[in-house]
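Hi all, posting the design record for the shared folder.

TITLE: backbone redesign
STEP: 1 of 1
STRUCTURE INPUT:
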């Protein structure tokens, strides 16, 4: 797992899409630990994450360490009322 975590630390911008959808079939905690490490090591760097969890669900949806890192030093863009792009009329 350590090798997989090396390259995200050096990226100028990192996009993490749909966090919280990963599964930990064996409840090993590896996915949560990896996410926590990435977010912690990238503090004060451009890291853009998307999730289907509402902001108010973060404290219970994510590990406390991950939730803390998502809120700390962040700009949060809540797009829940923006509607579906796929449902927009095409020209």
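Okay, here is what came back for every position:
SEQUENCE:
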């Amino acid at each position: 797992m350590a090798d997989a975590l090396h390259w995200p630390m050096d990226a100028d911008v990192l996009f993490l899409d749909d966090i919280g959808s990963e599964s930990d079939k064996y409840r090993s905690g590896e996915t949560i630990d990896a996410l926590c490490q990435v977010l912690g090591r990238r503090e004060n760097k451009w890291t853009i994450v998307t999730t289907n969890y509402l902001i108010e669900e973060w404290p219970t949806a994510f590990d406390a360490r991950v939730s803390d890192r998502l809120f700390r030093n962040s700009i949060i863009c809540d797009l829940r009322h923006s509607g579906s792009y796929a449902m927009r009329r095409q020209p």
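COMMENT: The chain has a mean pLDDT of 80.
Let me know if anyone wants the other runs.
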